[in-house]
């Protein structure tokens, strides 16, 4: 950035995740959402390629989301500001776990992960003035045995499949520890 030039007082968050927005709020980062419109197929960006490693997947998807968001920013002629994108995935070995398609798929994922360690990978990228900075974090986590029938009622009734399976088990563990 040239000397004397200042950053805008906000960033764009190109994420539909309410949790990412909440985290920025908690950090005191002013942000505006830069979400895809109905004509964009945002889910297509998350397609897994054959034999793709989890880290490669999460980095590629984050990069594609950032490219799409930067194009969206230009097309909408919005005021310039840094654009933040991220993607998180859960993996068990080389198997990626995306969003479950339905209750049966969620139960299948829970059974596969139950009592086995898994990895949570998050890639983030920021685009600003033609530059891109990115990083990836990977954490190994234990996964407690889950009783899937007891977990299902804890899911929110509206679009429960948008949440990763791991969040359901986290909620169950917190609930179990409090009672």
Would you kindly provide a written description of the structure presented here, covering whatever features stand out?
With 179 residues, this protein is an alpha/beta fold. 34% of the residues lie in helices and 23% in strands. It has helices at residues 18-27, 54-75, 103-113, 148-151, 165-178; strands spanning 11-13, 31-33, 83-92, 95-97, 118-128, 131-141. Strands 1, 2, 3, 4, 5 and 6 form a six-stranded mixed β-sheet that branches. A hairpin with a 2-residue loop joins strand 5 and strand 6 (131-141). The longest helix has 22 residues, at 54-75.
Keywords, please?
179 residues, 6-stranded mixed beta sheet, alpha/beta, disordered C terminus, single chain, 34% helix, elongated, 6 strands
Summarize the structure.
Helix content is 34%, strand content 23%.
Distance between the termini: 53 Å
Put simply, the count of helices is 5
Oligomer: single chain
Percent in strands: 15-25%
What profile does the largest beta sheet have? 6 strands, mixed
What is the tally of beta strands?
6
Uncertain runs are 154-179
Give the SSE string: EHEHEEHEEHH
Topology:
Blueprint: E1 11-13, H1 18-27, E2 31-33, H2 54-75, E3 83-92, E4 95-97, H3 103-113, E5 118-128, E6 131-141, H4 148-151, H5 165-178
Parallel strand pairs: 1-2, 1-3
Antiparallel strand pairs: 3-4, 3-5, 5-6
């Amino acid at each position: 950035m040239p000397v004397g030039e200042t950053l805008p007082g906000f960033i764009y968050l190109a994420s539909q995740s309410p949790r990412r927005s909440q985290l920025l709020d908690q950090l005191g980062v002013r942000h505006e959402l830069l979400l895809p419109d109905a004509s964009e197929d945002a889910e297509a960006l998350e397609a897994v390629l054959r034999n793709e490693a989890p880290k490669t997947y999460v980095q590629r998807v984050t990069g594609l989301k950032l490219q799409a968001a930067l194009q969206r920013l230009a097309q909408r002629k919005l005021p310039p500001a840094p654009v933040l994108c991220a993607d998180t995935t859960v993996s068990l070995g080389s198997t990626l776990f995306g969003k479950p398609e339905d209750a049966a798929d969620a139960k299948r994922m829970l059974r596969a992960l139950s009592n086995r360690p898994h990895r949570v990978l998050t890639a983030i990228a920021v685009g600003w003035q033609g530059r891109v900075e990115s990083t990836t974090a990977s954490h190994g986590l234990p996964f407690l045995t889950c009783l899937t029938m007891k977990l299902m009622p804890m899911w929110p009734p509206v679009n429960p499949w948008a949440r990763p399976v791991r969040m359901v088990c986290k909620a169950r563990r917190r609930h179990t520890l409090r009672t």
